[in-house]
Task: inverse folding
């Protein structure tokens, strides 16, 4: 049987091109891929900047504390409170005479020379930290079991030389409390050229009789990072106190009450005079301590947000932005601590008159911000001090990093309501909350604008004599 080849091919015709729909689909896939890669560029830049900032803050915090120690900032003889006009030789509100030693009484301090330098002013109203605002909590709302004494501390500067009555100027404060490591650079108009560093330039003959040095003399720094140091008394340890006044009938070395942590009362202040503290008579005889915890608050671009001049008694919605946002204290409505360096939750409450004020000013927080939880330890019954059971025996201040924030809600629980007071739940990360001798949950939270990191270390203050124990 003969077989013949079929003349009509059965396979599909050969394609001589692609359709328009295929071109459009391919273009869409490529475009999505390019857009996806492009979207990673700002994300990568953000993460890189955040990592660089975290690394820089960690280095700056430790070095700032070393700088403070080297320059004598932990020596109370270098402390200066604007408005303190005590005669020479008289213990000021920041120190107490203990035999040959002069140590500060048991109370916290904020060393913040940049707050007083230059045009910021040295008015006595600037000596409180934090200053109160009616948008957050007024001074009356910060009272807590302390004979109407506020949850505030002395904000102090440093004198120019030991024993002088002149506070540091702004250039001096920047020298010791501002980082010079973030070098400034300029980018030329020609984008193909690399950036170049900027220098302080002194023209020839600019300083009459000065050094014969001119030209580029020092590299400029942006000065973005600055710091202030919060000192909080450590737990009471009788063996570490250099001297116990024998004339004080309230101090008994054999008393078990005196061995309790945070037992001696702090020196409360009324801030009603010219910067002087109300020592309340026998408070001068109370045992002081040189054991403190130093919290170095590293801030970024804070200088432009420091309010100038006197701090008004009433700060409301009509006040300047710097006064409303620089620092504020709010109430802690509830607190849940999980212990250790894990997370906990705190509900913050403010007295803002509107939702906008609560969201944009008073309770304005974001991931990575820092807050300070605070509580005053009230005196318990049965103690031998004759000042009453409500006299305080110590303050607790601890800093925590914000890792998550919820929406602001009003008193009805609505995220859009306008009925105050307003609250915001915040997830925080940080150390265990202290539970010494009746310390309960924190009652207040302090928010300082621009804080990007906190370095904490236990320190011992210096004394007048290198031979003091």
Result:
């Amino acid at each position: 049987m003969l077989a013949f080849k079929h003349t009509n091919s059965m396979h599909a015709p050969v394609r001589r091109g692609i359709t328009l729909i295929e071109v459009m689909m391919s273009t869409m896939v490529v475009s999505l891929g390019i857009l996806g890669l492009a979207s990673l560029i700002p994300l990568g830049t953000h993460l890189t900047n955040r990592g660089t900032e975290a690394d820089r803050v960690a280095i700056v915090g430790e070095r700032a504390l070393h700088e403070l120690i080297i320059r004598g900032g932990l020596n109370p003889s270098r402390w200066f409170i604007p408005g303190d006009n005590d005669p020479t030789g008289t213990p000021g509100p920041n120190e107490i005479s203990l035999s040959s030693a002069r140590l500060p009484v048991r109370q916290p301090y904020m060393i913040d020379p940049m707050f007083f330098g230059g045009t910021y002013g040295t008015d006595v109203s600037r000596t409180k930290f934090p200053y109160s605002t009616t948008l957050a909590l007024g001074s009356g709302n910060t009272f807590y079991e302390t004979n109407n004494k506020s949850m505030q501390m002395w904000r102090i500067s440093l004198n120019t030389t030991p024993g002088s009555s002149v506070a540091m100027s702004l250039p001096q404060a920047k020298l010791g409390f501002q980082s010079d490591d973030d070098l400034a650079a300029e980018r030329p108009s020609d984008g193909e050229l690399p950036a170049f560093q900027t220098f302080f330039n002194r023209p020839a003959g600019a300083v009459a009789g000065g050094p014969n040095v001119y030209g580029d003399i020092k590299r400029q720094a942006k000065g973005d990072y600055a710091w202030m140091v919060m000192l909080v008394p450590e737990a009471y340890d009788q063996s570490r106190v250099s001297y116990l006044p024998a004339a004080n009938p309230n101090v008994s070395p054999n008393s078990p009450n005196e061995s309790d942590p945070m037992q001696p009362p702090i020196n409360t202040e009324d801030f009603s005079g010219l910067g002087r503290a109300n020592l309340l008579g026998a408070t001068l005889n109370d045992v002081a301590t040189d054991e403190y915890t130093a919290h170095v608050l590293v801030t970024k671009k804070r200088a432009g947000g420091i309010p100038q001049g006197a701090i008004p008694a009433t700060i409301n919605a009509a006040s300047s932005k710097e006064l409303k946002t620089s620092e504020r204290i709010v109430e802690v409505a509830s607190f849940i601590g999980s212990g250790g360096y894990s997370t906990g939750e705190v509900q913050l409450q403010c007295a803002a008159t509107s939702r906008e004020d609560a969201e944009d000013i008073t309770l304005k927080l974001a991931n990575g911000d820092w807050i300070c939880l605070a509580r005053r330890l009230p005196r318990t019954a049965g103690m031998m001090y004759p000042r009453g059971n409500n006299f305080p025996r110590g303050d607790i201040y601890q800093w925590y990093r914000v890792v998550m924030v919820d929406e602001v809600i009003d008193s009805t629980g609505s995220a859009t309501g306008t009925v105050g007071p307003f609250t915001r739940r915040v997830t925080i990360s940080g150390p265990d909350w202290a539970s010494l001798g009746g310390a309960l949950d924190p009652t207040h939270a302090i928010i300082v604008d621009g804080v990007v990191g906190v370095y904490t270390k236990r320190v011992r203050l210096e004394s007048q004599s290198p031979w003091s124990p």
